[in-house]
Specification:
The protein is mainly β. The chain is about 10% helix and about 30% strand.
Length: about 140
């Protein structure tokens, strides 16, 4: 297991997160498609990790993929996320975790043909994020 800047006991995470947040962030669960609060959000701002507050994505890299979860084509900083091979459910995917606390965010996919600069789709659970709208 990696060591993270933010390390907490399982009990601490359970006390700080709602049961739904805990299931996704700490147990690599997934919220149901098209149910997350940020799926269709177009608000300008910064998306941070709901568990530790680390800046992860910016609204200017969010795009409409119509997959049911918020999609971004690039993290705010390449060091903000950790990519891990995920072989669950009989598939090989790339899991995206917060590099600061190790919380599960979602998965990244490549080569799907979206018209984005990176040809990547960071498919992220809304419940893993917190949006701080840009002040006008």
């Amino acid at each position: 297991m990696s060591s993270y800047e933010v390390e907490k006991s399982d009990q601490q995470w359970r006390e700080e997160l709602t049961p739904q947040e805990y299931a996704v962030l700490r147990e690599a669960g997934t919220e149901r498609a098209f149910t997350g609060e940020y799926t269709d959000t177009k608000t300008t701002g910064i998306y941070s990790c709901r568990a530790c507050g680390a800046e992860l994505f910016r609204s200017d890299t969010k795009f409409e993929s119509h997959c049911g979860w918020p999609s971004f084509y690039d993290p705010a900083d390449s060091k903000a996320v950790e990519l891990i091979e995920d072989r669950t459910y009989g598939m090989t995917r790339t899991e995206v975790r917060c590099a600061r606390c190790g919380s599960h965010l979602g998965h990244v996919f490549e080569g799907e043909g979206y018209g984005t600069p990176t040809d990547q789709r960071y498919c992220i659970n809304s419940i893993s994020l917190r949006l701080a709208p840009e002040e006008a």
